Amino acid sequence: LLFTVSNLCGKCRPRDTDLLQPSLNFLYWSLHQTTPCSQQRAVAVLLSNVSLLELLQKVLECTWLQSPPPSEAAYLSPEDALLCSGWLLVASLLLCQHRYNTEVHQTISLDLTEVLKAVIFRKKKPVLLLVSILQFLRAVLQQNFSSSLLVIIGQKTAQDARQPQPSSLQDAALHPLAMQQVFPLVVSLQNLLVHKDLLLSPAVVAFLETLVEYLYVKNQDVALHVASQPWHRFLLFTLLNGGQKSFLQPEVLRLMTLFLRYQSSNIISQKEISQILQEAAEASLAELPEATSRALHLFLCQV
């Protein structure tokens, strides 16, 4: 069935949303709702289908080629739903291909600048689409832009710089990211967190964790500079506005852990650490949601 559906997808066009959207969802769940052995076979079937991979590239490119609908961001059109399925499926293929070192018969080429612009300049993109793109970007960062499935285009190499400046030297260290992309991206992530969306916030925090970790490996100074931006403290005040035991929100705990890990003492102080410990001591740990318990565990380990 997986083989048949993937072949069917390969014969479609990106505008065949009624057929493609449930088909891509089936392929996505075929990768996730299965045993590791079956998952390895499933990813091999999908990555051997050249027509499917070519179609997926065309679907993803529609993210910045099509005009945003005049409706509100909460509305998910059939075209947007297809984009969500495409981004999530490709993110899963990247992770599975890396895990099993599966042979790739056709690469997917994407312009990193366009992908980042889709997050930085959102233009009323639906929340689920932003989450899907962040999942993809996180998978790419986790693999250090080295996936054999993905080809990043549209970025200059360090050798392209005629007169190396400090910024170009930093760009060379962060390649294929550029300094002029990192800070607008971080600001955009902060703005997304301010909305306190239950679906979006965990995805944003997870991506921010991966981004800072990537930057730290590439250039510690840049990573520490990003992690210690004063705007982060205002962000925390915004997230903590209202609600009893507000420190025990999973996203807040994960952000606090991130700032502790990268020694951002101007963002989180001993006072905040003490408040979290006090709230944890007064809480009924058995009644905490799983996400909160996991985030609290990571925070305490970091402390």
UniProtKB/TrEMBL annotation:
Example GO biological process: meiosis I
Transmembrane segments: none
Domain of life: Eukaryota
PANTHER family: BCL2 INTERACTING MEDIATOR OF CELL DEATH (PTHR12044), MEIOTIC DOUBLE-STRANDED BREAK FORMATION PROTEIN 1 (PTHR12044:SF14)
Name of the protein described by the UniProt record: Meiosis inhibitor protein 1
Upper lineage: Eukaryota, Metazoa, Chordata, Craniata, Vertebrata
